[in-house]
Design goal:
Helices cover about 20% and strands about 30% of the residues. It is of the alpha+beta class. Strands 6, 7, 8, 9, 11, 12, 14, 15, 19 and 20 form a 10-stranded antiparallel β-sheet that branches. Strands 28-27-26-23-22-21-30-29 form an 8-stranded parallel β-sheet. Strand 7 (about 150-160) and strand 8 (about 165-170) form a beta hairpin. The relative contact order is 0.08. Bound molecules: alpha-D-galactopyranose. Alpha-D-galactopyranose binds near residues 358, 389, 500, 548 and 551.
C-alpha cells in the first residue's frame, strides 16, 4: 500500500545496479563519429523510424520510448537500446558483436540479438529452428536489406547459404510507444522443411541483475492471479500447450527492478502475445547475466511443414516501456488496446449494460421464461439481453446438443423470433450464446461427421465437459462453422454472440493430411478461427462478439482484434472478483472486462453480500447482471435501477479512463480501492472495499493519483459514507496529498464516490 505523499527510497543494491545500467547506457551512447551521415531528427511527438547508414543503426522513437538495434560486422541484428526516450540529438554507436567467453560461449551467445536462429553453436533460446529433408538443422541468419514505411520497419534476413528468408516486421505505436513485432519465414528452397520453433521476437533488456518478473497464473474460476519472482540465471517459461490461450498462464509479462514498490513510478518493460493458440514466452537470464524475453508459437509438439514457395508468419509480440511503474504499464496497455487493438479502434463503442440468463435459468431456457426475464431486465435499465446456453437442439444439459445450432422445437416452437422481437421492443439489443468449435458425441453433427474432431485413429477421444473439439484446421469444418453462424445471423436479428469454448485440446491428430503435416493444426486451427470471426464481422458489421472460454481462458491480444469484450471468469462471487479483476487489469482494459451482478449467496463460495457491494464490485468493469430476477424484491429492483443509472453516468470514465490501483486486494489485504480518472480528466471515480474490520482500526486514508494538482474538484458520494470532515470541494493537491477518509467498518462493506473537476476559473493559484 502506498502512503500519502511518500515515495520509496532505493537500497544500496539498487543504487549499485542503477550505476551499472548507467555505465552500460554510457557505453552504448558513444558520440557519433564526425563522418556519420546526418539523419533527420525524430519529432518530439508521433512516431519516427530512422536508419543511419553510416553506423547501420535503426532507431525507433514514439511517445516515451526509444528502441534501437544495429547490424554488426557479422551481419547479425544486435539489440542496442530499449527504454525511455532519448534526446533527438543522441546517437547510438555502431553495433559490434561482443567477444565470446572462453571456448564455451561463442559470440553468437554473448551478443544480444533481435532474432536468432538455431545454428553455429547457439545455446540461448532461439527464435527459429528448422529441420531440412537432408537432415541439416543448421541455420544462420544475416541481414540483407530493410524498408521503412511510415511507422513500420521491415528487415529481411537470409541464411548464409540456403534460400530461407525471414522478414522481421516492427511497428511502433505513435500514442504509446508500444512496439509490435513479428517474423515471416519464407521457403524459397527446392523442397519442404519443418519449422520446429518459431518465435516472433526476442526483447533484450539492459544488462542488470535486479530484475523482477510479474506474470499471470490461474485456473478455472481462479483466473488472473498476479505472480512475481526475481529473475535469476536460468529460464522461466510461461506457456500454454492446450491449443488455446489458457488461464493457467496468460501471454503477458512485465519486468521491473526489485525494490520498486511504488506502483506508479519506476521503469517497467512489459509485453503480450497476440495469439489464441498454444503459445510460449521465455524469460531467460543467461550465463553472462543478460536478460532476454522471447515468444511466439509454443514449440512443444510443434512442427510446421512449410512447402516450397510457402511462408509462415508468427503471431505478433507487442512490448512497451514506461517509467510510470507497473500501474503505468497497465495504463499504456489499456490505451493501446482501445486505440489500436479492439474492433472499431481507436473509438470502440462503450459496453452496454447486459443481462445474461445463465446463472438464472441454466439450460432451462424457453420463450416465456426468457421474455419474463427480459421484461424485468429492461425495467432496471439493462441495454442488452443475452440468452445463454440451452436454446438449441437437444441441449437440456451439457451431455448433448453442441453442434446442432437450430432452436429447440420444444423450447422455441416459433423459433427465436418472438423472443428477439420482444427484446428489441423493450429497447434492448439481443445476444445469443454459441460454442461453435465444439461438438457433443450425442449430437446429430457428430453422428454424421465423427471424423470432424481432433483425434488420433484407433485411440481414445478424451472428452471435457462431455464434448470434443472440432478440427477447425480442416477447410470443410471451417466453412461449415462459418456457414452455420452466418445462416443463424441471416435468419435472426442477433446483435451479439457470446462465443464460448469450454475445454482444451486433447489427442490433437489430423489424420486426413499426411503425417508430416498433421502438426500444422496448431497454426491452421487458430488462423481459421480468426478468419471466421473476421468474415462474420465483415458480413454483419453491427455484430458484437464476446470471447468466453469457461471463464477467462481465451483472453489475449489476438482474439481481442475480433471481439468487443471478454468474460474474465465464471467465478462471479463479488469479493473473489476483486482479486480476479485486479489481475485482469494488469494486462487488459477494464473496458472489455464483463462483470455480472449475480445472486447472493454466490454459488462459488456460498458467501452473502449486499446488492450494493455486488454492484460496486461489477461497476469497476463493463457492468452486467446475471442474477435470477424472478427472485428479486421490489427493493432489489429499486437498488439495481439506481445503481445502473449511476453506472451509466461513470461508464466512460471506467471503460476509457486511467486506472490507479490505490490498494490491492492481494496478500491478505483487508481493503482494496481503485481509482479511474476519465479520459479528459473531468471525472474521477473511486471504489473502496473493506473485506473485514477488526480491533477498531479505521479504513486507511486514500490518496488519489493522476489529478491536476492545481484544479478544483467537487466530491459526491455514490454509495456509502465519507468522513464527516471531508471538504465538498478541494484542489487536486489536497485529494492527492492530504487524501480522503472513507467511513467503512464491518465486513464486506463498500463505498464509491466521484470527483468532478471544476471548470478553469476556479483553478487554485
Ligand atoms: C461457460 C461460460 C458460462 C456459461 C456456460 C454455459 O461455462 O463461461 O458463462 O455460458 O458456459 O454452458
Amino acid at each position: 500500500m502506498q502512503l500519502c505523499g511518500s515515495r520509496p527510497g532505493k537500497s544500496i543494491y539498487q543504487w549499485a545496479s542503477t550505476f551499472m545500467v548507467a555505465a552500460w547506457c554510457a557505453l552504448a551512447l558513444l558520440p557519433r563519429p564526425a563522418f556519420a551521415a546526418q539523419a533527420p531528427e525524430p519529432p518530439s511527438a508521433g512516431a519516427a523510424i530512422r536508419y543511419d547508414s553510416a553506423t547501420r543503426v535503426f532507431r525507433l522513437d514514439a511517445a516515451g520510448v526509444t528502441y534501437a538495434f544495429g547490424v554488426n560486422e557479422a551481419g547479425e541484428l544486435q539489440s542496442l537500446y530499449w527504454g525511455a526516450r532519448l534526446a533527438a540529438g543522441d546517437s547510438l554507436a555502431a553495433a559490434h558483436s561482443r567477444p565470446g567467453w572462453a571456448s564455451f560461449e561463442p559470440p553468437v551467445d554473448t551478443t544480444p540479438q533481435e532474432f536468432v536462429a538455431w545454428g553455429g553453436g547457439l545455446y540461448v533460446e532461439p527464435d527459429l529452428k528448422l529441420t531440412f529433408p537432408d537432415g541439416n538443422r543448421d541455420l544462420v541468419l544475416r541481414y540483407v536489406s530493410h524498408r521503412i514505411d511510415g511507422n513500420r520497419l521491415f528487415v529481411t534476413m537470409k541464411d548464409i547459404s540456403l534460400e530461407v528468408w525471414v522478414t522481421l516486421e516492427y511497428q511502433i505505436d505513435p500514442e504509446t510507444g508500444v512496439l509490435r513485432r513479428s517474423a515471416t519465414i519464407e521457403n524459397r528452397t527446392a523442397g519442404p522443411f519443418t519449422i520446429e520453433q518459431a518465435f516472433a521476437a526476442t526483447w533484450n533488456l539492459p544488462r542488470g541483475t535486479d530484475y523482477r518478473l510479474r506474470y499471470l497464473a490461474g485456473r478455472w474460476a481462479g483466473e488472473w492471479q498476479v505472480q512475481q519472482q526475481p529473475v535469476h540465471p536460468g529460464k522461466t517459461v510461461l506457456e500454454s500447450r492446450r491449443g488455446t490461450t489458457g488461464a493457467q498462464n496468460n501471454p503477458w509479462f512485465a519486468i521491473d527492478r526489485e525494490g520498486e514498490n511504488d506502483p506508479d513510478h519506476g521503469g517497467v518493460w512489459f509485453g503480450a502475445l497476440g495469439w489464441s493458440g498454444s503459445w510460449e514466452i521465455t524469460v531467460e537470464q543467461d550465463q553472462m547475466r543478460d536478460v532476454r524475453v522471447s515468444g511466439g508459437f509454443n514449440n512443444f509438439d510443434f512442427g510446421y511443414l512449410l512447402q516450397k514457395g510457402q511462408s509462415l508468419r508468427t503471431p505478433d509480440f507487442y512490448a512497451g516501456y514506461t517509467q510510470d511503474g507497473i500501474g503505468g504499464a497497465s495504463r499504456l496497455l489499456h490505451q493501446f488496446e482501445i486505440g489500436s487493438i479492439l474492433p472499431h479502434a481507436p473509438t470502440p463503442p462503450l459496453r452496454p449494460v447486459l443481462y445474461d440468463s445463465w446463472e438464472a435459468t441454466g439450460f432451462g431456457v424457453d420463450e416465456a421464461g426468457q421474455i419474463a426475464l427480459a421484461e424485468k431486465a429492461a425495467s432496471i435499465g439493462v441495454e442488452r439481453f443475452v440468452m445463454d446456453d440451452g436454446w438449441f437442439g437437444e441441449r437440456n444439459n451439457d451431455h448433448a446438443g453442441l453442434g446442432d445450432w437450430y432452436p429447440s422445437p420444444q423450447k422455441f416452437p416459433h423459433g427465436l423470433r418472438p423472443l428477439i422481437d420482444k427484446v428489441h421492443a423493450l429497447g434492448m439489443s439481443f445476444g445469443l450464446w454459441v460454442e461453435p468449435e465444439m461438438v457433443n458425441p450425442d449430437s446429430e453433427l457428430y453422428r454424421e461427421h465423427p471424423d470432424w474432431v481432433l483425434y488420433f485413429p484407433n485411440r481414445p477421444r478424451s472428452e471435457g465437459r462431455n464434448q470434443l473439439v472440432l478440427n477447425l484446421a480442416r477447410p470443410d469444418v471451417r466453412d461449415w462453422v462459418f456457414n452455420t453462424l452466418n445462416n443463424l445471423l441471416n435468419q435472426n436479428a442477433i446483435d451479439f454472440l457470446k462465443w464460448d469454448y469450454n475445454r482444451n485440446w486433447s489427442e490433437p491428430g489430423w489424420p486426413q493430411v499426411p503425417p508430416d503435416q498433421e502438426k500444422n493444426v496448431y497454426v491452421d486451427f487458430i488462423r481459421n478461427y480468426y478468419s471466421i470471426l473476421a468474415e462474420l464481422r465483415e458480413k454483419h458489421p453491427k455484430l458484437e462478439i464476446e470471447s468466453c472460454s469457461g471463464g477467462g481462458s481465451r483472453v489475449d491480444l489476438g482474439v481481442m482484434r475480433y471481439t468487443d469484450e471478454v468474460w474474465p471468469s465464471d467465478n462471479t462471487d463479488a469479493y473473489d472478483r476483486l482479486l480476479i479483476q485486479n489481475g485482469f487489469t494488469y494486462a487488459y482494459t477494464p473496458g472489455v472486462m464483463m462483470a455480472w451482478v449475480t445472486d447472493s449467496p454466490s454459488w462459488a463460495n456460498h458467501r452473502s453480500l449486499s446488492l450494493e457491494y455486488r454492484f460496486l464490485s461489477s461497476m469497476q468493469g463493463a457492468l452486467g447482471v446475471g442474477a435470477n430476477l424472478n427472485r428479486w424484491t421490489p427493493e432489489d429492483f429499486a437498488t439495481a435501477k439506481k445503481m445502473i443509472a449511476q453506472y451509466k453516468s461513470i461508464r466512460e470514465t471506467v471503460q476509457r479512463g486511467r486506472l490507479y490501483r490505490l490498494i490491492q486486494p492481494t496478500e491478505g489485504s483487508e481493503q482494496s480501492a481503485t481509482e479511474y480518472v476519465g479520459p479528459d480528466g473531468r471525472q474521477t471515480v473511486v471504489f473502496a472495499f473493506l473485506h473485514s474490520s477488526s480491533e477498531l482500526y479505521p479504513y486507511p486514508r486514500l490518496c488519489l493519483r493522476g489529478l491536476d494538482r492545481n484544479a478544483m474538484y467537487r466530491v459526491s458520494v455514490m454509495d456509502g459514507r465519507l468522513d464527516a470532515g471531508t471538504p465538498r470541494e478541494a484542489s487536486g493537491a489536497w485529494w492527492m496529498n492530504h487524501g480522503i477518509d472513507v467511513d467503512l467498518s464491518g465486513d464486506f462493506q463498500a463505498a464509491a464516490f466521484t470527483l468532478e473537476r471544476e471548470t478553469a476559473p476556479s483553478r487554485v493559484p
